[in-house]
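Below is a typical protein record.
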Amino acid sequence: MSPVVLTARDIDYVYPGHVQALQSLSLDIEQGRKLAVLGPNGSGKTTLLLHLNGTLKPCRGEILLDGRPATYDRRSLNSWRSRVGLVLQEPEDQLFSASVYQDISFGPLNQGLTDAAARERVRLALAALQIQHLADRATHALSFGQKKRVAIAGILAMCPEILILDEPTAGLDAEGVTQLLTVLEEQRRTGATLVFATHDVDLAYGWADGVAVFCDGRVLRQGDAVAVLSDRELLQAARLRMPWLLEIAQALGYMDPPPRSQEALLELLRQSGRYDDDERADSRRRPLR
């Protein structure tokens, strides 16, 4: 097991009006791994993420950084948020500067970097998200997908150890999703820890190392992605379905180990003789009758 770098321990949170958002919730985040916080809309995922970077303080329980209880004075919060970067689901909630360059540079400058160091951080973040051409664009003139990439670039420019994303693929087209996951995977390869909240079981199955299944403000189970997402009763209790790749793998008996991508499933079908590229191509060329 990897070291646990961030922990939510037995936390409760109640919004004004006695709305219980989290109850007796515990969660461990391991260094260098990708954790999917998976649950239906309204299950408390976003509320948890806001606790993980100190935006919200639990009514009961505590957040631990490297095993030590987090504190909420200004200096501690600044240090915490330099280590734990949060990308919100709605980019409009995160962008506030007039231009893209100004917005991305705000975090590094607030960390105390020199102008030259901040410029280099911005350059690298723009390149990572392939949005160099947007550097001088007004943030209000961007499309939703562009705003999302700028919001992510602003957090990447701060070089956080732990990157937390709320529904990161929401509102992105297929190409945008592929590009984003490539960027995030590169962050993980360079040592970052990734946590993302989603209700997309297929994304969680295909990309995460571990999964924490959420429902009604509680973690029902946390563990290996395949093991957790193979538990049909658990998913039903959380109002979720089984990932379609895992459903097919179970039906075909491909569970040792199961395929985690469409390409891996097709390769298994080819090896078993159930799928033939040439025959499939021939069928496409045959005229319809």
Summary: The two ends are 58 Å apart (CA to CA).
